[in-house]
Write a structure and sequence with these properties.
This protein is α/β, with parallel strands linked by helices and about 450 residues long. The chain has 18 helices and 13 strands. α1 runs antiparallel to α4 and α3 runs parallel beside α18.
């Protein structure tokens, strides 16, 4: 009682009554607008460099301006001393330095939004180009997230097959898991759905479901669940399991009264752009990994379809964040993680760059630094390219801002006077200062034309 309910979150067990307390400005659309605005006003880590330089630059310029006045007052006249001091103060105004980073970030996040990439904060945009390891959740991220039953087998000499099908449908109807929905859909297609009472239903995260159906204890889940519950196996079904696992299918074992009576094979197709995305990441030097709760054989079969060699299989939902932290601790570079589910949220937060699919849950999107609203996996590559382009523009801006001041401050001090007899007019200094700011803004706007 009193807990907050997040929109789009799936309640897997039990029922509850909730009250809607947020509307209007708290909707998904309003949050997207808010996140874009926050990203455009957020500070990238590289901005600290400009801030640090400015903290030393300003007092140094004041001292240089004072020295300019003293020198010219001693060797020239008061008007010359005052004019040159003003020229130094105007020419050294660090406007370009302050504009170098935020203008590029603003244009970069806008460019991302045009391509369906919602950048939540400037730091994510800055460090994405350093990504060396990209980890992808399988279901709903690499795959379409629309699993379908492909094969069903029953133990030898099984009596009352129709009753078993009905028990499967009755139990799975209580679960919101994608695999459960696939099973219920299949049972419905073959006319096996019946109104049967289910008692003590429980969803066991990472394993499956269980309950009492028509007075009999029923278990439906993975191999680990069967082992944990000491279920008696079936040699025929074990042979089928090996075959279907090698085909990259996810298996759901069905046990009634501690006996494995049926086996269901479920397949979730890889997204068409997955392999293209993996190859593109490899070309730019990113090591691609897949993480899933599936067993090793099934996981590797799916990974092979996408061209992924590195697989983390048998990972329970609560272990994903731990695996991401382990990869980060290996110090092989920045780690990015892409996921879409509620159980992906901790991993998205743990990664250096969290990338949420736009079709995912609110909590996953909230935990990520980048959200792919266009649902296209190739946008992961686009995000990295956009990050590289944005950082290149920022570095150019900073170089120009520093170079401008280093070059023109001595001119404003009058170092050319002994050679040319020329002094910088404060009006020209003001024009040069404004021109430097315009050049930085103009350079940042070049991002709009960059192909990512």
């Amino acid at each position: 009682t009193g807990d907050t309910v997040i929109g789009s979150t799936i309640n897997k067990t039990g029922t509850f009554l909730f009250a809607a307390t947020k509307i209007g400005s708290d909707t998904m659309l309003a949050q997207i607008v808010k996140m874009v605005a926050e990203a455009q006003s957020s500070r990238a880590p590289i901005q600290r460099l400009a801030d640090a330089v400015s903290s030393y630059f300003v007092p140094i310029v004041l001292m240089v301006a004072t020295a300019t006045f003293v020198i010219w007052y001693d060797f020239g006249s008061f008007p010359q001393a005052f004019t040159n001091m003003i020229a130094v103060l105007i020419i050294a105004c660090p406007c370009a330095l302050g504009l170098a980073t935020p203008t590029a970030i603003m244009v970069g996040t806008g460019k991302g939004a045009e391509h369906g990439i919602l950048v939540k904060d400037a730091e994510a945009l800055e460090i994405a180009h350093k990504t060396r390891i990209a980890v992808f959740d399988k279901t709903g991220t690499l795959t379409r997230g629309e699993p379908k039953v492909t094969d069903v087998a029953f133990m030898d000499n099984l009596e009352k097959v129709d009753e078993v099908k009905a028990a499967i449908g009755a139990l799975e109807k209580n679960s919101e898991h994608p695999l459960s929905k696939a099973i219920v859909g299949y049972i419905g297609e073959i006319g096996g759905i019946r109104e049967i009472g289910v008692e003590n239903f429980a969803a066991i995260e990472g394993f499956g479901v269980k309950g009492i159906v028509a007075g009999l204890p029923v278990l439906i889940g993975n191999k680990k669940l069967m082992e944990n519950e000491n279920v008696t196996s079936s040699s025929k079904l074990d042979i089928k399991a090996d075959t279907w696992m090698n085909e990259g299918k996810t298996l759901a074992y069905v046990a009634i009264e501690k006996k494995n009576v049926a086996l269901i094979a479920i397949a979730d197709t890889i997204k068409t752009e997955a392999k293209e995305m993996v190859n593109a990441l490899k070309r730019i030097g990113v090591d691609v990994w897949m993480i899933t709760g599936d067993n090793e054989v099934t996981a590797r079969a799916i990974a092979k379809q996408a061209g992924i060699k590195n697989v983390l299989a048998g990972v329970l939902p609560q272990e994903k964040a731990k695996k991401i932290k382990e990869l980060k601790n290996d110090k092989r570079g920045i780690v990015a993680f892409a996921g879409d589910g509620i159980n992906d949220a901790p991993a998205l937060a743990a990664a250096d760059v969290g990338i949420a699919m736009g079709t995912g849950t609110d909590v996953a999107i909230e935990s990520a630094g980048v959200t792919l609203l266009n649902k296209d996996l190739r946008s992961v590559v686009t995000t990295i390219r956009l990050s590289r382009a944005t950082l290149a523009i920022i570095k150019q801006n900073l170089f120009w801002a520093f170079g401008y001041n280093v070059t023109l401050i001595p001119v404003a001090m009058g170092v050319l006077y002994p050679i040319t007899g020329w002094l910088l007019n404060p009006a020209l200094a003001a024009f040069a200062m404004a021109a430097s700011s315009i050049s930085v803004v103009g350079n940042s706007l070049r991002l709009k034309g960059v192909k990512v």
